[in-house]
């Protein structure tokens, strides 16, 4: 019976495809022929017409058209092409190691030991790293970093994070069961937004975000078909957050959506400001009064350079505002391995701490996290080292402290250098880079250049950044990709390149900007 069935199937194949061949030998031409109907090719199911419209609405400027063009130029140079420059300097993204920053030795030692436990026998690895690696591996299935962990993360790592938060916040309690490991902070931010977005038409969730903002937020809002509610940071006051602007944005948004969540990035990206404690108190009071869920993006908490600035966690400030606030305001805070002094972007490690979430909703959060199984365990291990670094009494502390201080000291120096050089250029104004890894200078673009950009169907600062790339090899991101007030123009650049390369970069920006002003304003050097 089985043989007869096979014979019948073979016969059918002969009728449609000629002499029978096993399926693995059917040629691409035969398959294509089989896909034709009355001489017409089968239409694709997924086209730009059938694509999810929310996906088409997503934009992510940090890896947008400018970066694609930079890649083309790099390939052209590699193939022997000539330009007025010998290399492309990518200052578009906060990728520390790609910019030449060296890894923190102790972190890599612990992750290496977790990845290849046979190294435990090597005298080249310090005992401080070995006992941390053993402890992490004991929390992994089969004592292997190749296993899945529980969806919220490895339990001992969650406990280490809670202990770190308590120490950072000078005794404010942290429950390890409120800690969830994530695949970078971005994963956590997307997950929480998925919980929050609901409703239709005027009841659709409104998400309040700072402008300028990190494009992850606008991209996530577009993908989820939520409503973006912009509140503008005060550029004239070093990008401070103005409580009156929050009220304006909230009241305006209530006319067409239901604002349910406010997002804050502190220290700021792309703006580099560090919010004061008073400002944070005002935001939390506003959220309390308007019953808003608070999302606090704190991935740059170690990146504070201005001597008169200090990082204040939203959780600590909330606690200090008293039980009425601390027991009721819903708050999620995010951290990451990608920034700070480690810059370990590729590990995709991160966590979020969830405060005052409804228990039934928290169960839904765990369900949602379980769908993606777990974050990468190597990233979890890296996160553990960041929250559980060498202590002063440990043998590895001296080298660790030297490396950490060197990275942060260099960043502080580069933040000051960037501000000073940009502010020396006519037509460029840069606020102090108090923290994070970026400068977001305002640039004057002459009306003639604005008109040319409009004729080309692009934003004026996109034209500016494209010209900068094509003439100097410097890749920065137009301010329009982050949001900005009408008729103002900016670009974002990272301060991560080495001092030597940063000096070259800033010198080229200076020369280009003066040339750009001359070209489009018709002014001579002594008039600029």
From TrEMBL:
Top-rank taxon, per record: Eukaryota
GO biological process: L-alanine catabolic process
Family: Belongs to the class-I pyridoxal-phosphate-dependent aminotransferase family. Alanine aminotransferase subfamily.
One GO term describing the cellular component: cytoplasm
Assembly behavior: Homodimer.
Described function: Catalyzes the reversible transamination between alanine and 2-oxoglutarate to form pyruvate and glutamate.
The enzyme's E.C. designation: 2.6.1.2
Claim: Transferase is one of the keywords in the record: yes
Source organism of the structure: Sinocyclocheilus anshuiensis
Domain Aminotransferase class I/classII large: 143-506
Keywords: Aminotransferase, Pyridoxal phosphate, Transferase
Gene this chain is encoded by: LOC107690726
Lineage per the UniProt record: Eukaryota, Metazoa, Chordata, Craniata, Vertebrata
UniProt cross-references to CDD domains, sorted A to Z: AAT_like
Pathway linked to the protein: Amino-acid degradation; L-alanine degradation via transaminase pathway; pyruvate from L-alanine: step 1/1
Required co-factors: pyridoxal 5'-phosphate
A Pfam family: Aminotran_1_2
Listed InterPro entries: ALAT1/2-like, Aminotransferase_I/II_large, PyrdxlP-dep_Trfase, PyrdxlP-dep_Trfase_major, PyrdxlP-dep_Trfase_small
Catalytic reactions of this protein: L-alanine + 2-oxoglutarate = pyruvate + L-glutamate
GO-annotated molecular function: L-alanine:2-oxoglutarate aminotransferase activity; pyridoxal phosphate binding
Enzyme class: transferase
Protein name per Swiss-Prot or TrEMBL: alanine transaminase
């Amino acid at each position: 019976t089985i043989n007869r069935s096979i014979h019948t199937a073979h016969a059918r194949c002969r009728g449609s495809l000629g002499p029978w061949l096993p399926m693995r030998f059917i040629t691409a031409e035969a398959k294509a022929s089989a896909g034709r109907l009355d001489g017409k090719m089968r239409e694709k199911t997924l086209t730009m017409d059938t694509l999810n419209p929310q996906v088409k609405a997503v934009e992510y400027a940090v890896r947008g058209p400018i970066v694609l063009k930079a890649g083309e130029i790099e390939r052209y140079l590699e193939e022997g092409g000539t330009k007025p420059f010998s290399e492309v300097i990518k200052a578009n993204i906060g990728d520390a190691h790609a910019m030449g920053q060296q890894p923190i030795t102790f972190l890599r030692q612990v992750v290496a030991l977790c990845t290849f436990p046979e190294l435990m026998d090597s005298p080249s690895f310090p005992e401080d790293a070995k006992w941390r690696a053993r402890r992490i591996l004991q929390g992994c299935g089969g004592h292997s970093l190749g296993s899945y962990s529980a969806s919220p993360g490895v339990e001992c790592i969650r406990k280490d994070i809670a202990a770190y938060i308590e120490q950072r916040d000078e005794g404010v309690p942290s429950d390890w069961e409120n800690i969830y490991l994530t695949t970078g902070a971005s994963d956590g931010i997307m997950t929480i937004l998925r919980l929050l977005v609901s409703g239709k038409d005027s009841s659709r969730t409104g998400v309040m975000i700072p402008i300028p903002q990190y494009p992850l937020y606008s991209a996530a809002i577009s993908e989820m078909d939520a409503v973006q509610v912009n509140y503008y940071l005060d550029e004239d006051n070093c990008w401070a957050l103005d409580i009156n602007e929050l009220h304006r944005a909230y009241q305006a948004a209530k006319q067409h959506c239901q604002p349910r969540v406010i997002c804050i990035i502190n220290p700021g990206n792309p703006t580099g400001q560090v919010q004061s404690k008073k400002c944070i108190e005002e935001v939390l009071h506003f959220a309390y009064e308007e019953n808003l869920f608070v999302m606090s993006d704190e991935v740059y908490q170690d990146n504070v350079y201005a001597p008169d600035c200090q990082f204040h966690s939203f959780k600590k400030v909330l606690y200090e505002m008293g039980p009425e606030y601390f027991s009721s305001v819903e708050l999620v805070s995010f951290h990451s391995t990608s920034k700070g002094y480690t810059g370990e972007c590729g590990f995709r490690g991160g966590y979020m701490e969830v405060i005052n979430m409804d228990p039934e909703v928290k169960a839904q959060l765990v369900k949602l996290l379980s769908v993606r199984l777990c974050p990468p365990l190597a990233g979890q291990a890296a996160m553990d080292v960041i929250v559980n670094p060498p202590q002063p009494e440990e043998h590895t502390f001296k080298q660790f402290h030297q490396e950490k201080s060197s990275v942060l000291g260099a960043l502080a120096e580069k933040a000051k250098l960037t501000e000073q050089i940009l502010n020396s250029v006519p037509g460029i104004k840069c606020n102090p880079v108090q923290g994070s890894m970026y400068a977001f200078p305002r640039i004057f673009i002459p009306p003639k250049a604005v008109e040319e950009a409009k004729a080309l169907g692009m934003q004026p600062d996109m034209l500016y950044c494209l010209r900068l790339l094509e003439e100097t090899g410097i890749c920065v991101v137009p301010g329009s990709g982050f949001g900005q007030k009408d008729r103002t123009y900016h670009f974002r650049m990272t301060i991560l390149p080495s001092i030597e390369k940063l000096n070259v970069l800033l010198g080229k920006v200076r020369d280009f900007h003066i040339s750009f002003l001359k070209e489009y304003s018709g002014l001579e050097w002594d008039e600029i």
